[in-house]
Amino acid sequence: MAQQADRRELNVSAIRNGTVIDHIHSEATFKVADILQVQGEQDMVLVAMNLASSRLGKKGIIKIENRELTPDEVNKIALIAPEATLNIISNFQVVDKARVELPESIERIVKCFNPRCITNNQPIVTKFEVIESSPPALRCLYCERVMRGEDIILK
Amino acid sequence: MGRPITSVISIRGFDRKGILYVLEQSGKMEQRPHPRLLQGHVLGLMFVEVSTRTRLSFASAMMRLGGQVLDFGDPERSSFKKGEGLSDTIRVMAGYCDVIAIRHPWEGAARLAAEVSGLPVINAGDGANQHPTQTFLDLYTIQKTHGGIDGLTVGFLGDLRYSRTVQSLAGAMSHFDCRQCFISPESLRAPQHVLEELEERGVQHEQFSDLGEVLPQLDILYCTRIQEERFADRLEYEQVKSSYRVDRALLEHCGVKETLRIMHPLPRVDELSEDLDATPYAVYFQQARNGIPVRQALLAMVLGKL
Fold first, then answer.
1. pLDDT over threshold 60, residue A90
2. In a domain, B2, yes or no
3. Are residues B77 and B102 in the same domain?
4. B241 catalytic per annotation
5. DSSP label at A90?
6. What is the ipTM score, two decimals?
7. Is residue B73 in a domain?
8. pTM value?
9. Does residue B109 carry a pLDDT above 50?
10. Rounded distance, CA B227 to CA B12, Å?
């Protein structure tokens, strides 16, 4: 019980209001921190990695005080860390908890990896169909190439 | 047919029912001329990449339906040389015509044209991506020569790695009950993503290096040109080139089905001997002619006339 209480304190209770991104694959932790540009934050930010996790083996966790994520940020996290969960914290309580989930299509946030794609040669917004969500696979709506893993480059 | 066809950008947008509908309409076009069906309509040809036969085939199809053709002209002398963005060029062109056929080296250019022009657009080839009218005319040829597409064994021969024609046709044929055989040198194998898609759809497919091993089983042999520039080693190219030369002697030596038909998107170089041209196996010139009824049908469809 004591162990469980400790974990709850570590994972959730440390911020009063804000967002906790939990169950990040450990190696993706700093990529998620980059997506959220936490270095520019004025309020408290906690970043931890290599924490024990029964599901992932090792996991990362990021807590950001007084911050709600935008849909684009959530989609980016879903691409980099599809196992991650989002906890919305209000007055030290988890008021909402959900696994990040990719929508059926995404726009803007990813660059097509194909240099001959029209999106890399003309100033137009990238669009992708999400054909698999975990691990993510995206099909460019323009050149129709499928991107997975390291090929998925965030803008 | 459910949703009307408004543009033809990718064969991926067509399921079995949609493909068969296009083929049926192509057949009707061939049987009965419609010299005034598209009278008063203008086709804008925007070929930003070298093409003779596809461009002329589109023009011929439009003119045979009573429509007119406006050619964007030589890209070297057009507004591209002045640095105009593609979206602007397409928007301006859209003011001059009722339907656009576009060929462009950038992949996805036809999709962009459909988005920004507000007109029906037919993709006449976007880089290594799609060339859907070629795929339809290939399927139409297969249907005509064999009376249907289901139940056939198809062999794709040559440069399977870089051939968008083969990749698109293989994808389209996955909607039918066909066995697909991929015959190529190791270095020019069909890309993994193409094979994975066939796998996902439960399509029976195999890879071969030796054409002779599979030739007697084939109903269709679809040849492609092996491009010399793909090989780093010239000796390797010479070996591959000669191993995939299809001629009358090879067919006799291997013993092929009487109903075998040989297709090729043309132009050919050495891979297909001229001694086959007069045999019943050769359907490649017929295949090129089939581009007319197929493009007529697609033009009429996107203009809401079918």
1. yes
2. no
3. yes
4. no
5. E
6. 0.89
7. yes
8. 0.89
9. yes
10. 26
